[in-house]
Amino acid sequence: MADPRVCVLRAPGTNCDLETAHAFELAGGTADRHHINQLLANPHLLEEYQVLCIPGGFSYGDDIGAGVIFSRQLRNQLGDAIHKFLEGDKLVLGICNGFQVLLKSGILPGGSTTWPPAEESEPDATLTWNLNGRYTALWTRLKVASSNNVFLRDIDTIEMPIAHAEGRLVVRDESLLQQWSDQQQIALQYTGEADQPVSHDVLAYPQNPNGSTANIAGLSDPSGRVLGLMPHPERFLFATQHPQWTRLRLEGEGAGMKLFHNAISYFA
Ligand SMILES: NC(=O)CC[C@H](N)C(=O)O
């Protein structure tokens, strides 16, 4: 089979598209970066791709809330193209600002089961300001909590950096947590030390860097083919990007590459 094709979709203010496309290429995919206006002009463009990735950054300057404007473009102007994509055997990844876009558009948490969301529907969850009220950038330790998300296959714990101001996940109703848990949708949780069990009790800063409900750092759709996460796997492609790579004697690829390998090998 030809290399899987990845559409890295950017908007004005996106700033992680280059390294994200690079990560997919290192994993063996063919990645194109497209401006949202190219897709608005020709929504059929999306049909050429197996993976849609919305990378990190500050789309539209985070005006009126991080990811809000970009998410409205997907929902109001590209509803049909996204619907077709979600229905196919394809993958969607949203990193940081991309996660904000997936959640605020309604692609997450339901995926194809709830897309397109009804105009008047209340979102199940959103990402809002960190509890500390600040843009926060640090390395976090994460536990994979979903057994069926494609991007997280064969990963148990992983370290990745976060860098955001609006990364605190809040839910409309706490009963959703049980539903998500049952459907394997809680994909990633911030955790403490390696052997510490993860719980839904909110950990203190810096383990949980933003105060997210149930320490949630990433969500999956029920099919396991959509992932949104606040940490940046594309900032850990090489061992030397880890702050303690010498002390830990890390070599070769960074652990973040695993997510990109998993995505590409899904199509093998
Ligand atoms: N690194 C990013 O994608 C930035 C995320 C986002 N716009 C925030 O600060 O909340």
SSE layout and pairing:
Elements: E1 5-10, H1 17-26, E2 30-35, H2 36-41, E3 51-54, H3 68-77, H4 79-87, E4 91-95, H5 97-105, E5 125-128, E6 136-144, E7 157-164, E8 168-171, H6 175-182, E9 186-190, E10 216-220, E11 226-229, H7 257-265
Parallel strand pairs: 1-2, 1-3, 3-4, 4-11
Antiparallel strand pairs: 5-8, 6-7, 6-9, 9-10, 10-11
Helix pairs in contact: 3-5
Bound molecules: glutamine.
Order of helices and strands: EHEHEHHEHEEEEHEEEH
Order of strands across the biggest sheet? 2-1-3-4-11-10-9-6-7
Strand content: 15-25%
Distance between the termini: 7 Å
Q: If you compute it from the alpha carbons, what radius of gyration comes out, rounded to the nearest whole angstrom?
A: 17 Å
The helix-and-strand class reads alpha/beta
The distinct ligands, each listed once, are: glutamine
**Main beta sheet:** 9 strands, mixed
CATH-wise, what's the superfamily? Class I glutamine amidotransferase (GATase) domain
Q: Enter the CATH topology name.
A: Rossmann fold
Q: Point out poorly predicted stretches.
A: none
Number of strands: 11
Helix percent reads 10-25%
**What is the highest CATH level, the class?**
Alpha Beta
Mean pLDDT: 96
Kindly give the count of domains: 1
Count helical runs.
7
Q: What shape does the CA trace take?
A: globular
Features:
268 residues; alpha/beta; Rossmann fold; two-stranded antiparallel sheet; 7 helices; globular; binds glutamine; nucleotide-binding; purine biosynthesis; Phosphoribosylformylglycinamidine synthase; Class_I_gatase-like
